[in-house]
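Bug #77: duplicate submission created two jobs. Keeping one. Sequence:
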Amino acid sequence: AAAGLDAGDLRGFRIAKQSLDARRMGGVRRLRFVVHADVIVPAGLRSPGLARAVRAGRVKRAPVRGRIEVDRVHESLRGRRVAVLGAGPAGLFAALVLARNGVGVDLVDRGDALRERGRALNAFDRTRAVEPESNLLFGEGGAGTYSDGKLYTRVAHALEVPLLEELVACGAPPEILYDARAHIGTDRLHDVLPALRARLEAEGVRFHWRTRIDGLVLGDGSPRSVRAL
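Kept job's structure:
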């Protein structure tokens, strides 16, 4: 109704964002959810109610949704393997995008895969002896692996939803797709990460744990390879 649409006009619907409003109104604190929804309607639809909703600012055109797959890979990447440094969120998803588009990827991290990293952290809890290579900062998932998987920083980017959908496919709760204060939870994140790693390996990504990058080998001023310890 707020969009000036009849139910018969809808061709698709999804919750795009949900947040909790706890402000005082008239001196009374009333909790309420504020929900933004994406709807799909026929391209040629015209109605007085929709026109009024657009003028009032209740309806606007949704941003174009991005795709992980691209139409064409840059020629500099064709037939080559790429080194992605760090298995935190940026590194994991960079590897995913590259691999999905036919680029060979070696993902390098100075820390351990999740199970071995957990053993190092358990030893630290008991002894307070720091493991310099695999710890709360370095290893599969990056620093966020042990910070409850919070996703509070929302960005208006075309790839936000496709990347979050990858996490949902690996076992994250579907609410992360729209909840403004979403978090996966450390316990569930520790199931999501191995599932994501399996998806990456199925795409041809090679993981190199306990591998510390010592420098870059340059050619014509550009990085050509990495030196690893």
